[in-house]
Amino acid sequence: xxxxxxxxxxxxxxxxxxxxxxxxxxxxxxxxxxxxxxxxxxxxxxxxxxxxxxxxxxxxxxxxxxxxx
Length: 69
Prior knowledge:
The protein has 69 residues and is an all-beta fold. It is 0% helix and 42% strand.
């Protein structure tokens, strides 16, 4: 369970997300197991992934990411 206080300055953390783009379509950040594998047109992405959430400190701006589930 995560705390709602910043580990750097003890400020208040707010939940949000950092979108990524794939084929000009915004989506949520994703976590993939293992090391990245380069393909012909970029990275070869496994079919299995976990979506991520990002928390930002409202005082100092520190970002912290968590894989959901």
